């Protein structure tokens, strides 16, 4: 893969991460119930917000692993056990996000709020995206693992 393409994709991954951090820090201030709340009340008295921050760690780990896979591609090391391991980690992170969202949906449905539909729909969208990412990562992991196995067999016979 061309060096410029992988560097560009790595920059896109970094920008996605920076945008996600900005959204995580900015969005709680926009909620209606936090309109007159202090910073302490917003960030330390909302257990669901703390849960969302813990759940977002899987997303950032997956972004870091995607950054590493692009680095392996840039250095022509994509057919290596390290790349397979990074794709496996991305798959596990996507499955963890699905689990976190499922538990979050239970919190939303059991809450006495009148506005559940928006939160449930966002959870469905995040779950769908995570399923697509997990499936793609599993497929690429399997393809790369087969390539690594073939490469190691060829190295043994030569």
Q: What's the SSE pattern?
A: HHHHH
Outline type: elongated
Question: Spans with pLDDT under 50 lasting ≥5 residues?
Answer: none
- Helix-and-strand structural type: mainly alpha
Q: Count up the domains.
A: 1
The largest β sheet comes out as: none
Number of helices: 5
- The proportion of residues in beta strands is under 5%
Helix content: over 70%
Tally of strands:
0
Oligomer: single chain
Q: Would you tell me the overall average pLDDT? A: 89
Radius of gyration: 20 Å
The span between the termini is 26 Å
Structure description:
It contains five helices and no strands. It has one domain (3-157). By secondary structure, the protein is mainly α. It has helices spanning 3-26, 39-44, 47-74, 81-110, 117-157. The chain is elongated, with a radius of gyration of 20 Å. Helices cover 82% and strands 0% of the residues. The two termini are 26 Å apart. Helix 1 runs antiparallel to helix 3 (47-74), helix 3 (47-74) runs antiparallel to helix 4 and helix 4 (81-110) runs antiparallel to helix 5.
Main features:
single chain, 158 residues, mainly alpha, 5 helices, elongated
Task: Write the topology of this structure.
Layout: H1 3-26, H2 39-44, H3 47-74, H4 81-110, H5 117-157
Helix pairs in contact: 1-3, 3-4, 4-5
């Amino acid at each position: 893969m061309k060096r410029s393409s992988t560097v560009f994709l790595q920059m896109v991954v970094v920008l996605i991460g920076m945008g996600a951090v900005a959204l995580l820090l900015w969005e709680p201030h926009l909620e209606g119930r936090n309109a007159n709340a202090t910073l302490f009340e917003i960030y330390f008295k909302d257990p669901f917000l703390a849960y969302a921050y813990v759940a977002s760690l899987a997303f950032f780990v997956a972004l870091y692993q995607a950054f590493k896979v692009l680095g392996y591609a840039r250095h022509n090391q994509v057919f290596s056990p390290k790349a397979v391991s990074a794709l496996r980690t991305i798959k596990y992170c996507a499955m963890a996000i699905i689990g976190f969202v499922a538990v979050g949906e239970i919190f939303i449905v059991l809450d006495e709020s009148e506005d559940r539909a928006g939160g449930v729909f966002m959870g469905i969208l995040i779950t769908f995206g995570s399923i697509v990412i997990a499936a793609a990562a599993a497929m690429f992991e399997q393809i790369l693992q087969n390539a690594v196995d073939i490469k190691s067999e060829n190295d043994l016979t030569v």
